[in-house]
């Protein structure tokens, strides 16, 4: 197990050094998971199947948080392709400061719920009374690229392919449920 841990630690350190060389702050490189599992190979004899322990497999999940900067993203991936590390890469775009957007969504959702309630009350020939309860929930839409391993990417291809990338709009959805007393 020590050899497996040393290997993953060496690879992660090389990856970090490559990112530091691009002036990426160490606080933007965070560990999201670290796993060690036993690895076996199946041995088959006539009528029997047995598992033989072959060692340990480790994985270290790292998240890199950078501003939307396609040239930098291309450099990150190009720099990574020149290391000994062979990671799986998954790219996701999200909104950095979500509080302001969530507040705007809530404001609009409450106004829409109120407007709909007034239309319904008018159609039912009743009046809205006091607001009895209000609840909300959010859903956020992320733009994701499929996960890919470096082995799938031709050297030099990926960095140049990001320079003109136009990310689809990110969207939030706020659901508001409001209950009014009917008069």
- Tell me about the biggest sheet? 2 strands, antiparallel
Strand content: 35-45%
Series of H and E elements: HEEHEEHEEEHE
Order the strands across the largest sheet as they lie in space: 1-2
Question: Which spans have pLDDT < 50 for at least 5 consecutive residues?
Answer: 142-162
Mean pLDDT: 77
Question: Helical residue percent?
Answer: 25-40%
Estimated structural class: alpha+beta
Ends apart, CA distance between termini: 71 Å
Count of extended strands: 8
Q: If helices are DSSP runs of H or I spanning 4 or more residues, what is the number of helices?
A: 4
Shape: elongated
What value does the Rg take, in angstroms? 26 Å
Short synopsis of the structure:
The chain is α+β, with helices and mostly antiparallel strands and 183 residues long. The protein is built from four helices and eight strands, in the order αββαββαβββαβ.
Describe the structure.
With 183 residues, this protein is an alpha+beta fold. It has 4 helices and 8 strands; from the N terminus they run H-E-E-H-E-E-H-E-E-E-H-E. It has helices at residues 2-20, 70-81, 98-123, 157-161; strands at residues 29-45, 48-64, 88-89, 92-93, 128-141, 143-144, 148-149, 171-182. The strands form 4 sheets. Strands 1-2 form a two-stranded antiparallel sheet. The chain has a two-stranded antiparallel ribbon with strand order 3-7. Strands 4-6 form a two-stranded antiparallel sheet. A hairpin with a 2-residue loop joins strand 1 (29-45) and strand 2 (48-64). It starts with a helix and ends with a strand. The model is unreliable at 142-162 (pLDDT under 50).
């Amino acid at each position: 197990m020590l050899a497996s841990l040393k290997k993953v630690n060496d690879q992660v350190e090389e990856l970090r050094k490559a990112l530091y060389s691009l002036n990426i702050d160490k606080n933007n490189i965070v560990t999201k998971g670290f796993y060690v599992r036993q690895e076996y190979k199946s041995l088959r004899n006539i009528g029997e199947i047995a598992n033989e322990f072959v060692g340990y497999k480790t994985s270290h999940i790292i998240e890199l948080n950078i501003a939307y900067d396609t040239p930098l993203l291309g450099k990150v991936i190009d720099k990574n392709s020149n290391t000994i590390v062979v990671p799986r890469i998954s790219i996701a775009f999200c909104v950095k400061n979500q509080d302001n957007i969530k507040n705007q969504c809530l404001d609009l959702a409450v106004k829409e719920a109120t407007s709909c309630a007034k239309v319904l009350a008018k159609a039912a020939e009743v009046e809205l009374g006091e607001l009895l309860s209000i609840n909300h929930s959010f859903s956020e839409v992320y733009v994701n690229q499929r996960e890919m391993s470096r082995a799938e990417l031709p050297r030099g291809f990926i960095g140049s392919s990001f320079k003109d990338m136009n990310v689809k709009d990110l969207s939030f959805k706020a659901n508001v449920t409001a209950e009014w007393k009917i008069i």
